[in-house]
Fold this sequence. Notes:
CATH architecture: Orthogonal Bundle
Order of helices and strands: HHHHHHHHHH
CATH topology: TorD-like
Strand content: under 5%
Number of strands: 0
Helix content: 55-70%
Distance between the termini: 31 Å
Radius of gyration: 17 Å
Number of domains: 1
Structural class: mainly alpha
Largest sheet: none
Amino acid sequence: MTEQLLEGLDDAAELRAAARSRVYGIFCEALRYPDDELREAVREGEVSRALRASIATLAPALLDGTDWSALSNAGDDDDGLAIEHTRLFEVGTSGPPCPLYGGLYSGARMKTMEEVVRFYNHFGLTLSEDPRELPDHLATELEFLHFLAFREAQALQSDGDPGAFQRAARDFVARHPGRWVPKLLPKLKRAKPPRYYEELFAILARFLEYDARQLVEIAGPAPSDA
């Protein structure tokens, strides 16, 4: 949907919001379980090209230091990336080595889940009944940021007030994925992941840090009691 929105934009703020939405949408797709369609998109370079181009429109400096060829490496074995996804993020004797649930990094998972649900509900969003779609899962959190940036772009395009979406994104990034994704990186490194996942999470962490700074510039600092 972001691609359609981009067609009618020429204002810098509108383009920035739409591009942020697209980046978060690409991350959501790139992080999901690698079925045949995603593996093909990785091998054909679609994921790498889309992510690189979208980030370049916002912050070209973020492109440095990333091995973009790694994001086109789905492995020689058709099932290899899927097996690694399961090993890293889904199973383990006492849980996966690199869980993708933010509440597991906070020390208070129920409180974390309650907070993210309040964010979602404030904007009229509810989770599906799929038990795998938990509120603190990384894909769910990134999809919410994708939604907020999209709505921000819509508001800017229609001369509406984007403030609520900007402030929510500022607070959500800082309190949730921007806070715990960096804690995931050393776990991932110790687990010796495929280069695809190592590079994908590294650029995600850098983008979250960048977006957190930009959102403070746009929406102002968060209230001291937030």
